[in-house]
Amino acid sequence: MASNVNPTVRRRRLGQELRRLRELKGMTAEEVAERLLVSQSKISRLENGRRSISQRDVRDLCGVYEVEDHRIVDSLMQMAKDSRQQGWWHAFGDIPYSVYIGLETDAASLRVYESLIVPGLLQTREYAQAVIEGMWPEAASSDIDKRIQIRLKRQDRLTDPTNPLRFWAVIDEALLRRVVGNEQIMRDQLLHLAHLSEQPHVTLQVLPYDAGAHPGMYGKFAILEFHDAMDASVVYLEGVTSDLYLEKANDVQSYTVMYEHLRAKALSAEQSRDFIHRVVDGYSS
After folding, report:
1. Helix/strand/coil for 221
2. Burial bucket for residue 41 (CB in 10 Å: 0-12, 13-18, 19+)
3. 3 state SS of 108
4. Quick check: 250 and 263 in contact, CB under 8 A?
5. Which of 39, 21, 19, 20 is nearest to 30 (CA)?
6. 102, 154 in Cβ contact below 8 A?
7. Which residues pair with 205 in a beta bridge?
8. Per residue in 124-183, pLDDT tens?
9. How many angstroms separate the most distant Cα atoms in the chain?
10. Phi-psi map region of 81: left, alpha, beta (phi>0 left; psi -120 to 50 alpha)
11. How far apart are CA 33 and CA 254, in angstroms?
12. What is the pTM of this model?
């Protein structure tokens, strides 16, 4: 569930404001880095919200940008302080995808395309365990348990009674057919999918095999949108050792168009539920 102070979102907003101040000053990130005797990559990470930012960093940058309004400086300093607070996910220790969790926690809507695995927010505990054990066969049992707990905690966004996440998923038929765990786990998982798809804020569409070639063949992706207009939409691409976050308007637009094509080729929500139930019958026999 979203907290009053989300450190990930605070870092993004602060970074956007610092970038705006730099651009108003007509300076490049390289010029700022030279003035502060730091690397250009540090300035870039501060501006894209991927790095924790200290009040000292804010003070030094405001000095370079000659910000004279103390109210602006104080506001930015407070944002830096808020950005260093801990979100709920920090209680689980070091998490490789903590940036994504912070964004998801504060998002107003999430659109995903998945081709091989049931989206994490829709997974049952048993399915999640089977997936995690299969994807990280050398992981310690404690690490597997931690990942399961985090995944289930993330699902609170779908059940939040006051601010549920608007969730839209286009899923490939392949993930319905691949037996993860065993047939009973799959049967329970698909029934869970069908049940969740009946919720007013959840839309689920199946992309059947006979849809042929489609834009999703590039791979899975997610598009996050936020309540505050200051927070630009983000495209999230998950990797094995690192993740990619796309925030440029052209990139987000390209993936948005791809998603519209996927929705158009997929079965309707009602047809998808019927399709899922037919697959369930196959596991039951």
Report:
1. strand
2. exposed
3. strand
4. no
5. 39
6. no
7. 170
8. 999 999 999 999 999 999 999 999 999 999 999 999 988 899 999 999 999 999 999 999
9. 73
10. alpha
11. 32
12. 0.80
